[in-house]
Sequence to fold (471 residues):
Amino acid sequence: MAVWWIRRDLRLHDNPALAAALERGRSVVPLFILDPALLSSPDASPGRTAFLFAGLRTLDQDLRARGGRLVVRRGRPHHVLAQVVRETGAEVIVAQADVSPYARRRDARVAAHLPLQLVGGVTVLPPDRVRGPEGSPYRIFTPFRRAWEAAVATEHLAPIAPPSRLAVPETLATEEIPASDPGFEGFPPGEQAARKRLAAFAAGADAPIYRYAATRDRVDLDGTSRLSPYLRFGMVSAREVLAAAHRAMHDAPDVSACQSARVYIGELIWREFYAAILRHFPHVLEQEFRPALRGIRWNDDLDGLAAWQAGLTGFPIVDAAMRQLARTGWIPNRARMIVASFLVKDLLIDWRHGEQHFMRLLLDGDPAANTGGWQWTAGVGTDAAPYFRAFNPTLQGRRADPHGAYVRRWVPELARVPDRYIHEPWTMPSETQRAAGCRIGRDYPAPLVDHAAARVRAQARYRAARSVARP
Fold:
């Protein structure tokens, strides 16, 4: 008997933990624990939790189709697991290793008293696998990428087939999966939906992955894979996504398409890199990776933070992205960089406030990737954008949404604003404002800041922090 302790692997295909559990026992108990420490965490997200519960329901359906079922228990993991081991006589508990400080403390406590076997699967390669020549973890992305690609080249990436049958003891008690809102705009939950989305993105002669390099920064187009919520909960494996991208490279109709698939793989490697950074440098959850920038004097601007959160900054591309985030729990990566840069560089508000807001809303909210992305944009993390770089929200809007379709969708006050003013509506003449039904300062806010002046102010604050930090 083996327990498959499900955490971030809500799937049957290509699941190393499930495969290891099946190797160890004739019967496998698929167990999910409703952990109060996670469900009541300050980083917990109602939307993400609902997406998780919906994913558990689809997993239970998939298990029942194979003669099994999902066992759900509530409580502290070490207590629940001890009880399940006593009830079943299980000889081993198999689970995917994770990288967050809480996950590592939790697993260490369980392993001290119970037969816990941890396997890989959250990332393509275990975060400990890729190290520098002297065994130290990489701090810079480019050498990490080279080492990671060399290591992956020696791996067998063929996904593990799912079991056709799964016997689960009928006597085991289970709780009901908590009810949740079934609607997630654009993200139907579960493994089948995830694999369908992967196939739609990466398979076929006209696959969107072949246009990814050109479309990924266009927020008005559906130019990204939109797989991140599924990867967050392991409804599809990172290894299966990588294998699909490799096949797309191999089958690419031309050099440009092949390069586009490679660009997508690069984004998968960033995910691997940030997981490794959190594994080796857990302080990044609270503290800047770059010591020289830990003394930045941030603004205590509650009004500015509230305006940013509500999508009322007066900069259309920022407001559109923040409203999409609030409604759907997801925004494209380009939009994430734009709104993060605005909060940190234009408003000079501590990046941690933005990171926490994202974690409360994102369906794909992952501590490693979210913290890594925020520190990158803030210029304080590993491989960060230069500290003096600040995204110009007007220029970014013109490039990412050239005709204003994205802005008009999420900021309906601007629906009738002409294209030439859509990304700087404060420049509209009074008569144009009247014709568009959008008076600045009444129907839509004036800009919170002057971007050029805010950029100079941010550079001064960053330089001051660097000068104080110098020995």
Notes: The longest strand covers residues 28-34. The mean pLDDT is 95. The two ends are 59 Å apart (CA to CA).
